[in-house]
User: Fold this.
Amino acid sequence: MIIPNVNALSDEQLKEVTEIVTAFGCKVKVIRGQERHVYAIIGDERDDDMVTKLEGLPYIDRVDRIQSPHKLMDIRSSLSTHKVKLGGVTLGEEPFFCAGPCTIDPKNPNLTIETAHAVKEAGAHVLRGGVWKPRTNPYSYQGDTKALLILMEASRQTGLPVDTEVMDEEHLHLAVESGVNCLQIGARNALNYALLRQVGHAISGRDTCVLLKRSIHMGPVQEFISAAEYIVQLGNPNVILCPRGTQPALDGYRNHPDESIIPLVKERTWAPVIVDPCHAVGKASYVPAAALAAIAYGADGLCIECNIHPNKGIGDDPKQAVAPEVLRRIISQTRELWRIRRGVPGRD
Amino acid sequence: MIIPNVNALSDEQLKEVTEIVTAFGCKVKVIRGQERHVYAIIGDERDDDMVTKLEGLPYIDRVDRIQSPHKLMDIRSSLSTHKVKLGGVTLGEEPFFCAGPCTIDPKNPNLTIETAHAVKEAGAHVLRGGVWKPRTNPYSYQGDTKALLILMEASRQTGLPVDTEVMDEEHLHLAVESGVNCLQIGARNALNYALLRQVGHAISGRDTCVLLKRSIHMGPVQEFISAAEYIVQLGNPNVILCPRGTQPALDGYRNHPDESIIPLVKERTWAPVIVDPCHAVGKASYVPAAALAAIAYGADGLCIECNIHPNKGIGDDPKQAVAPEVLRRIISQTRELWRIRRGVPGRD
Amino acid sequence: MIIPNVNALSDEQLKEVTEIVTAFGCKVKVIRGQERHVYAIIGDERDDDMVTKLEGLPYIDRVDRIQSPHKLMDIRSSLSTHKVKLGGVTLGEEPFFCAGPCTIDPKNPNLTIETAHAVKEAGAHVLRGGVWKPRTNPYSYQGDTKALLILMEASRQTGLPVDTEVMDEEHLHLAVESGVNCLQIGARNALNYALLRQVGHAISGRDTCVLLKRSIHMGPVQEFISAAEYIVQLGNPNVILCPRGTQPALDGYRNHPDESIIPLVKERTWAPVIVDPCHAVGKASYVPAAALAAIAYGADGLCIECNIHPNKGIGDDPKQAVAPEVLRRIISQTRELWRIRRGVPGRD
Amino acid sequence: MIIPNVNALSDEQLKEVTEIVTAFGCKVKVIRGQERHVYAIIGDERDDDMVTKLEGLPYIDRVDRIQSPHKLMDIRSSLSTHKVKLGGVTLGEEPFFCAGPCTIDPKNPNLTIETAHAVKEAGAHVLRGGVWKPRTNPYSYQGDTKALLILMEASRQTGLPVDTEVMDEEHLHLAVESGVNCLQIGARNALNYALLRQVGHAISGRDTCVLLKRSIHMGPVQEFISAAEYIVQLGNPNVILCPRGTQPALDGYRNHPDESIIPLVKERTWAPVIVDPCHAVGKASYVPAAALAAIAYGADGLCIECNIHPNKGIGDDPKQAVAPEVLRRIISQTRELWRIRRGVPGRD
Assistant:
């Protein structure tokens, strides 16, 4: 819908608008109002470039889009019945749990191995662990490829599939070749379209999943879903969306918890949503409440930092990792709330 | 703690700092670091004016406060064991529910009366209903004092105590004289300190409660609790804090849901917190999930817009009021989650 | 423009929409698209209640408004040629300056009197000074009516008209009866519609001006202009809009400077805009740059805290008040930039 | 400064704190207050990992850092007298201008060549032009390497050095090998630390500059400066910081203009700052005012989209590129304001 800043376009203006719209395979239709006319675009109005050209005209106030810009991620797309499976769970059918240490300490492999056994016993389906770490401060620990071997050994011993973050093409290929089951795109890279495309290529033809974290600053839901479209358009639709808190932070948390975005995401896309409450609140004592709230809002699962000795963990462990017995309680409460939620009208 | 922007204060600077601090009954203590010195304030560092004077000195970078600025609302204050009671419920001991129409239509008294009976049957403890309405647009419906009579009649018929918003001294006195049990301060007036003081005076010596909504733009938790301190300092401590969403809105909701603030509020104050999910999300279909999330985060209860015929309601009813059967289901699910939550470590 | 969440309304749905729209004196017109239909509202679509009712229907996605909601403040309204005059200046024709202490210290009248003479000499047209103070902390200094006498005496001696903030009906009547020339509505009260109406009534039939500060959290431009509409609708159009920074603050400032809003405000309303850079940045050393930036963005003038002895000032003086010689330099630079700006295309 | 959430650490707690701090080469010093004790860290408190470990202890409320985390970018570092030179200008000594089309159209080389001549005549020192484009929508135009040849030809004909955005390692090497003088890191990649390091390596030992755009969501100033530290630590200090507006947008602009951040940046770092007003406001008619405001706040120059035929431009051209005669007027007004600003106290 084209809204001019004049009451009606002149013949010349309408001609100019029509030329632009026609070049993108659409038509214009005048809608005559009492005081003002507006102009409908008939056809596929999703092309950003058409909209930009129209909005660049000095007599156009704005162009309101009505269609979804997501061809594959859209809830009405051909993928709308696709189910993502990971760790033996079909996401959406039962609650899914991914857990493990924030960062794998290459100097202390036993800490990761023992934590892996503990999260499995607590009920987790997938083991997470950071091999490489994006850090604001360039002088902080940035990760170590040796940690990947520890993660894969923990996977072998427990039988749990693994999830780890990749930040560039080199990590990506190492992770895929090592058999990582779920590639995590961190919040800082959620708008790094070059990396998203590389990931899309790397997993094409495989059954690898991608856990796409929401950027800490991502505003509109559409931007989040568009980022996933970059991956899915290359052939593998196994993408999972992961809200993990945004900035600016709530006064006392590490970020602003964003589990409330879930109903808005689920209205627009078929993709499963799992929440990372640890990064959202940033402190272990707040995690159980935030985890339950995510399930209340309709999350399909949780991704939780857990460590048998948080104080010995590196990365954000000491602040935000819960102990295995807390993880077990969160999983148990989640399963109870999941059953209650089944009764919420319009949700399940 | 005073942080200078120089490595150490000169004798003259330290003398100037000491004079200011002494005038407010405090002392200064130097803390000698390797590279830089900082200066501790020994005494009651809560006075804003002392801090402002110190921060106005050209060689002071900032003053970090360590003590809470809330004398009565603070969780360690003399009021810390006070329990607010309303509608037969001691808040905190069992879930509390306030429900009713957004705005009472003075032309359709039966709609309010019948809704009142319906919310009572659904399990609500208090009947809410707007008599006067703050509106961004000065030409929209602004309320009508006649509606107060309808609200009180609904209270008489159902036995439910009532809650209504007051916006100025005239409303305040009408409401108190009519026997309104809970005075609501709306989000737009949460920073209107003149009104907060008038309310504090009006309820002093009575058992009237105040439901203080969070401003739609209130940032830090401290600002919210300070607003309540304006009321409580005048003698009546029956204040209930009510998050109801903030601006800017999440893309698709009316506001940005803010139930996640509850653990932060509860760490700092003893006051009960009930959440209004309807204003947060702005659309009836999202309310059940947001209500459950509030309980997950530790809310003591809910304030919910409910109408037997939302489409005939005025104000925000048509968008965000739920039907009585949905209210009943929310109440039932809340009670179940309340029991689950009891097991959350560190919460109950 | 009504956007359904279905491809086309059913006959029954269209009937329901038509009934609502007709009740508000408008008509509906179907706009048939290739895939989806949208529905134009023909008539005055500004009524919030009509829009709310439509958006409450389960099959309506949203209602996009095309007309301005401001009857009098709109740039195309009957008031569009109105010029506000204050302190001998017709706002918009030459740069306007209001200056003075943050808060008048009732115990030190000479500080205000001498500062008044200094700001006059520096080139200010109006003397500002706080008599009553809204404070987040209820235990901080809240103002003193005695300060009003000092302000009026400073006005008598210098011949400068005065500006002071009013926060409730009592202040309002004291200020109007004392002959205050410009009533300031502070940021915390910019959404206090009861007070805005009281001010509108009090100045009706007088030539008093109102300086309406922007709320520290006010989002959309429309909300700011609507607040002014509450005053102007009661008869006196001498309202001046005053951006003064918003929250959340920029990391290091007191607020987030918001002078960049000016071109957006000036596109929508005829009202003059003067900027308060002191509250925006919160520290005297940043004020000159922020003042110039306001003029760059098209401000009609500035409101600046100035004190001959900032360290002795109360309120926010010590941090953010500039010395008279800095005020003089700001005024001189403003006049130079005003002349440069005349050449900016599309601005003057 | 370590702030516990208890009045004083127990001997055991102090021992645990001391062990952590000692492991990072620091010492702890107790500061005894009247009611509470705090604990100073004596030594280099900048290590994030030490802070995280301390904050992970259950009895620690927070750790306030006093030192800057930037070793090289800090205004007091060894680089503090470094001057960046580009296009014949020593940044900071005279106003610097970079201008050119948003996106180079590979199908219309003449548009870029003619625009290059026009921006040179208008007074620009560097020619900008997008070869590759990051786009939210994966189906929009993503750029074309052929455009790089056009950009270099325009450089050859005009003698202007060139600036273009690189988004991955492949672009980076193509750009460096082609002789691009200034590599632009776009807002979406400002937190892509892998790319920042690749850029740092690629320019090490060359005199290439980097124009680092501020992320559209970057909050604190420190995060922006830390991103630059990633580049500079690899040997080449020719980095220029470029604010270009943040999200959420001001109601009517493309982004929220952020020129007001400049004084805060300049207090912390020696690096030059140039502003991109076009992306900030998103519409050509607002650009001249935003450009002047940037200079008022202390910008060392401007980066402006300019096109001889904006309507024929691709990318964001049609909306936000100014015509060459507007660029010429902005440059002339900037030079005048630069001279006025010299008189602003504490700035030059």
Remarks:
- DSSP finds twelve helices and 14 strands in chain B.
- Chain B has a mean pLDDT of 91.
